[in-house]
Amino acid sequence: MDDEEFRRRGKEMIDYIADYLLHISDRRVTPEVEPGYLRPMLPKNAPEKSEKWENIMQDVEQAIMPGITHWQHPRFHAYFPAGNSYPSILGEMLSSGLGIVGFSWAASPACTELETIMLDWIGRMIDLPVAFLPFDPNHDYEESDNESSSQTDEDDDINEDHLLNSVKNDDEQKQAEHIGGGVILGSASECILVAMLAARTKKITSKRLTDPLIEDGQILARLVCYTSKLAHSCVEKAGLIAMVRVRQLAVDEHFSLRGKTLEECIRADKEKGLIPFLVSGTLGTTSCCSYDNLKEIGEICQREQLWFHVDGAYAGSAFICEEFRYIMKGLEYADSFNTNPNKWLLMNFDCSCFWVRDKFALINAMSVDPLYLQHKHAQQAVDYRHWGVALSRRFRSLKLWFTIRSYGIEGLRHYIREHCRLAKVFELLISTDCRFDIIGDVTLGLVCFRLKGSNKLSQKLLLSLNDSGRIHMVPSMVNDLYIIRFAVCAKHATDDDMHVAFHIIQEHADSVIAEHRAQRN
Ligand code: PLP
């Protein structure tokens, strides 16, 4: 493909994507293919000779599209939203076009610097605790208030120069103490793994200070991480990779992990000689969008010197709206936090934002420094290769920059608020049909419901709905109840979409209940 053909094909591709998204509702939500469907449709070996572009695109329609689950479809209500927007797609396109690999500042300074700035923008958009953000000389830090109020009368005698100097030194001191920061990683799973690895290194280092003869392996074998039964399975997976125990604790009647449960488990583990090192809490569980009690958990983590990570993969985006910030109460106790703009902030996958209170704790766990990656600005610049698992990194902040600027925070807030309003519309519809129960509180864009009666009945209902290809949802299990999760996902979801979904669900409920009754008689 030469330059001219690239221009032509590129424009055609934009048209193809725009048409796909415009007419997406003409398609089934889920494909009707069986595992292995694609192999017989494609040649066994890669082509020796170049193929015509038209033929490749023809195969997209004939072979690929039949196997696509249409995540942007108005009847797609599974999981959580898969972010998508035109500015984000174009940002991705530019990132691919530039073809850079931003593992260090020197590898492409704009890639690193825009990433840091975007993390600061989003951090402020969602009102993260200041400890996660860079030092801001204009911010009224509470600590500096305390310090100034503790001054004595003698201070009045200090000459102006001295005063200016001490303010400067004070700022420098604060700046030095301010060691938080953020990075974009590929997934929430990666953020949680990285938090776990940082917490693990920190605990091992501190244990070795008090017991220099102990070996790392002996400490590792005793480490314990705590999370709730409703935390995403990636916490358990991170434990597998990091080779540490993960305790999945019971939740209360609001599906929330409480301090008392955590405290009892920590006490029992310490009695057994184990070493608690991390709690991974959740704001907006995948199962039912419930929230752990961060304040209770945070106080325990502080007392027990445990790393406290908070996973807000979905719910975090809602904090751009002030009315949802009550949910983040207690986040000031956290050592690290993640949220995925690629779920609910109109960014394409992948884009997981991860902030830490102490970037050195992270860097200590992740740094290796071969000669070929060193550069002369390493002391003053950020090298994101030390902030995660991968070395090579894409220019993901471009899509954040494009999308935030194109929508404005106001536009993004409108999108979030619409999804939350529509979830309430759907909740109301479900509650008008006495055959259903709503499970949990509807606070954001997720509604969980079930048919009254046995788990089997709701299971049959969901199977029937998904098999129909008219709508797509996934189940979850909370406190032994099988529930159906209805997430508002489509970017331009409407009231009408909620009504259509409700009627499809009612129709299938009619036949599932009728069949159930017939089998009983
Ligand atoms: N945490 C929560 C609360 C989630 O809902 C999800 C996925 O839906 C994850 C973590 C895992 O996200 P990822 O696919 O980015 O690893």
Protein model, in words:
The chain folds into three domains: 3-82, dopa decarboxylase, N-terminal domain, CATH 1.20.1340; 109-134 and 180-395, Type I PLP-dependent aspartate aminotransferase-like (Major domain) (Aspartate Aminotransferase, domain 2, 3-Layer(aba) Sandwich), CATH 3.40.640; 413-520, Aspartate Aminotransferase, domain 1, CATH 3.90.1150. Helix content is 45%, strand content 11%. The chain contains 16 helices and eleven strands. Strand 4 (275-282), helix 11 and strand 5 (307-311) form a beta-alpha-beta unit. Bound molecules: pyridoxal-5'-phosphate (PLP). Pyridoxal-5'-phosphate binds at residues 79-80, 187-189, 232, 234, 282, 284-286, 311, 313-314, 340, 352.
Essential attributes:
single chain; 521 residues; alpha/beta; dopa decarboxylase, N-terminal domain; Aspartate Aminotransferase, domain 2; Aspartate Aminotransferase, domain 1; 7-stranded mixed sheet; 4-stranded antiparallel sheet; 16 helices; 11 strands; globular; binds pyridoxal-5'-phosphate
Chain-wise SSE layout:
Blueprint (H helix, E strand, L loop, with lengths): L2 H20 L30 H12 L21 H13 L10 H17 L16 H8 L10 H18 L3 E5 L2 H23 L5 H5 L2 E6 L4 H10 L2 E5 L9 H13 L3 E8 L11 H11 L2 E5 L24 E4 L1 H4 L7 E5 L2 H8 L30 H35 L4 E3 L7 E6 L3 H14 L5 E5 L2 E7 L7 H26 L1
Parallel strand pairs: 2-3, 2-4, 4-5, 5-6
Antiparallel strand pairs: 1-7, 6-7, 8-9, 9-11, 10-11
Helix pairs in contact: 3-14, 4-14, 7-9, 7-13, 10-11, 14-16, 15-16
The protein binds pyridoxal-5'-phosphate.
Pyridoxal-5'-phosphate (PLP) binds next to helix 7.
